[in-house]
Amino acid sequence: MSKVLNVAIAGLGTVGAEVARQLIENADHFTHQSGRAVRIVAVSARDAEKARGFSMAGVDFCADALALASREDVDVVLELIGGEAGVAYDLVLGALKNGRHVITANKALLAHHGHALAQMAEEAGLTLAAEASVAGGIPVIKMLKESLAGNQITRITGILNGTCNYILSVMQHEHREFADVLAEAQKLGYAEADPSFDIDGIDAAHKLAILAAMGFGTAPALDAVAVRGIRDITRMDMENARDLGCTIRLLGEVERGDSGAISAEIRPILLPLESGLAKIDGALNAVSFAGAPIGAVTVVGPGAGAGATASAVLADVVDLAMGRHSPLFGVPAKSLKQGNSKTTNLSAPTPAHPPGRMEKHFIRLKVYDRPGVLADITAILRGHDISVESINQPSRAEDGVNGAVPVILTTHEVKPKAVAAATAEMAELEAVLAEPVIFPIYHGA
Amino acid sequence: MSKVLNVAIAGLGTVGAEVARQLIENADHFTHQSGRAVRIVAVSARDAEKARGFSMAGVDFCADALALASREDVDVVLELIGGEAGVAYDLVLGALKNGRHVITANKALLAHHGHALAQMAEEAGLTLAAEASVAGGIPVIKMLKESLAGNQITRITGILNGTCNYILSVMQHEHREFADVLAEAQKLGYAEADPSFDIDGIDAAHKLAILAAMGFGTAPALDAVAVRGIRDITRMDMENARDLGCTIRLLGEVERGDSGAISAEIRPILLPLESGLAKIDGALNAVSFAGAPIGAVTVVGPGAGAGATASAVLADVVDLAMGRHSPLFGVPAKSLKQGNSKTTNLSAPTPAHPPGRMEKHFIRLKVYDRPGVLADITAILRGHDISVESINQPSRAEDGVNGAVPVILTTHEVKPKAVAAATAEMAELEAVLAEPVIFPIYHGA
């Protein structure tokens, strides 16, 4: 164990550069923590000349990231390029083929190809580690795979996308519209120029697919994750939620139902303001694990950012240097059961198809304000055996149509399918002026 | 790695029995998680005949726990007896001397003897693991030692004692007196018949000493932890805190100051109601780690209880079965720097001697309601250069003395020493009828 651990870093973006800086500037710390020196021997980056504020003297710059996979002097490749395919995939594959350990922050890669890559690594006796791939700096992967290894996991719940949580918490606290806050988030660097990966829930779905695999011993099954993003949430929805003592957040949930079937969903949901998750503001992430015998444990922290993500990558580096190993998914990849469907490319957000569990629902309708409308609506609800908890007609002006008013319904616990059928029927009413908007209401841990 | 891991369990109290039950009833799970079978070969318990609701067929019962240390067929001893000395100490020492790994939940043992025991284990190439010793089921130790290994830790803050947190949160929400809530907590099993270990802050101090050692690379230094318990907190204090938008909780804090000196304290503190820690209710624990480059991460969960504590013990078992090892304090015990003072027996709560950091303070006085009193008090504050933020005379009736009224002062940020000196001077005033009560006000992360 006294041998130096030789590291190659592919990608010197904000995370890669921070990892390099930490390993160089705090080299003594890493030697002390690991019992051996950790040395960067080579890096690849688009721009070798870019000023990064610290010295990389003695480190080879390779123009071609793939060259890192085959260097004789490298023990581990840190893949910090990103993307499910292309260079990142080729590099990880090449490194494993050449007998190099791999540490990656790449959730898309693992959600799509993690099962095969993990099998490859395990057959070759190599480590493939990915703490940084889910929830940035929050060490959810080690917690789930190692700290909770003695538990039967029943449920994982999380705020997994900082961009969405930032947008929704600003909408909540500053009473602003989605498009307005998104534009500001883009200006501030909290959202990408093309924000769809985040706001359509795809990024969160990648992370949930990875957590689901680790928690339930199944191969990652990305297209078994029902996904709904946050594009259609309005300021009025947020205010109506507040009237009900709630806020709206994008939540990921995966659980094992009574039948043993696993359901995974990313969706906006009404959270009671007094619940712990409703208090996670800004770009923070939070993940709760429920299981037996532990009960439940929740961890909150920075889900993104150079420093936080670097912290997670560095934890994997120290683990490797110390000889601590766990399989990528906690148990041998060849023992993983197939998920609910085969892993395919999630090119577009899948329509939500929530599982059969009973939940309360919030329904927003836009109706002509005339006698008999409520009677028609409640008759439809009765026809679908849906019990109403509240009906409100908030006095806020509806945009556009003259004489139109909003109606906010909340239901008692009911199957999502019944709500979908009832609202489809409501949409056919002449007095209903727009597609009904539906959100589930959080049912608690 | 295909060899069976043979386990001995010393102590079949609530935690030990739950660990045994999990390993027996979920044996397949542990084999799958660990890649090898985990088998209980022997246990020791006061009562071999006690009905535990599951079968321990094939497991040897030893009347003498110490016999477990020298059995040839045991790989690891789980010490779940407790106590800093006596059988627990002799057993751990004996097991390590005989070349057996040790997993323990014993915070008192480690706070007092952890440094020496860790050195012994490390010299012999053995694992001494203790996830369950701090914060029960919350995996704070692995998080600190492994997940945050790439960070320079600057501060650890935590609600570390579930009994105190239960009492204080019931006082807060049900407007009740300390003694009343304590008696109820004893009846419900949340507090011991002799509650001093918990309510005087000693248990929390043990845990903080262990976390401080892991976070800052120092030997555990229990009597360097300034400790104040919660006995003197009244219903009126809680209500005055609420008037200030705060609650009161017992908080542990350890940090590295600008000078590099480490200060550690357990003390009741006023927490703003909107802060995350103020929302930790009941017997939950919460721990926040701050450092670079991560920023901060917080974990919340059950700090006690059979299931939660068993979860932590079982994580150590799986780590050992998988060959994952980290030194007890994260780095080799022989490399630990000495703490602020030598480790001695903490037989009584040490008077608080907070470090020099500036903090806001809450001061409760009981005074005769007559002209000139406030002038005397504010003159004393001015004499100590203490800037007042607020003065209130809540109209609540003071118990006992006729004509007595409470005065609640809050200060701007000031050295604790100045507050101590000023309040000592106030206590000398004829019109001040009782010892002033002082709480710091949380200064945020």
Please tag this protein with its features.
homodimer, 445 residues, alpha/beta, Rossmann fold, Dihydrodipicolinate Reductase, domain 2, Alpha-Beta Plaits, 3 domains, 6-stranded parallel sheet, 6-stranded mixed sheet, 13 helices, 33% helix
Give the secondary structure arrangement, pairings included.
2 copies of one chain form a homodimer.
Chain A: E1 5-10, H1 14-25, H2 27-34, E2 38-44, E3 60-62, E4 76-79, H3 86-97, E5 101-104, H4 107-123, E6 128-129, H5 140-147, E7 152-159, H6 162-174, H7 178-188, H8 196-199, H9 202-216, E8 225-227, H10 235-243, E9 246-256, E10 262-272, E11 284-292, E12 295-302, H11 306-322, E13 360-368, H12 373-383, E14 388-392, E15 404-411, H13 416-427, E16 437-441
Parallel strand pairs in A: 1-2, 1-4, 2-3, 4-5, 5-6, 8-10
Antiparallel strand pairs in A: 7-9, 7-11, 9-10, 11-12, 13-15, 13-16, 14-15
Helix pairs in contact in A: 1-11, 3-4, 4-9, 6-7, 12-13
